[in-house]
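Thread: quick sanity check before group meeting

JM: Hey all, I'm pulling together slides for Thursday and realized we never actually wrote out the predicted structure for the chain we discussed last week. Dropping the sequence here so it's in one place. If anyone has concerns about the input, flag it before I start.
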Amino acid sequence: MLCGGATVYSPLVQYGAGKAAKDVGVVGLGGLGHFAVIFAKALGANVTVISHTESKKADAEKMGATTFIATGSDTANAVKPHRRSLDLIISTTSTM
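JM (edit): ok, ran it. Output follows.
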């Protein structure tokens, strides 16, 4: 938890999650993504999880995510309704 936690906690605090950045997006719900959702929620942010499939939606909601975006094979159309809705995005994946 120390290394992974610090990896996402530091930018969340540095860029004002829950304060200036009320709406935080987390790309990828793996190990780092789990920490990012939990920390962003604890800091008072509304959290949106962005994932490739719906398979992690229930986990995201249990951790406090208020919105879940499954991009599937058509990322452009999946994110279109959410454009400019996030103040801060934490990417925990090596691909977008």
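AS: nice. The first helix runs from residue 2 to 14. The mean pLDDT is 94.
JM: adding both to the slides.
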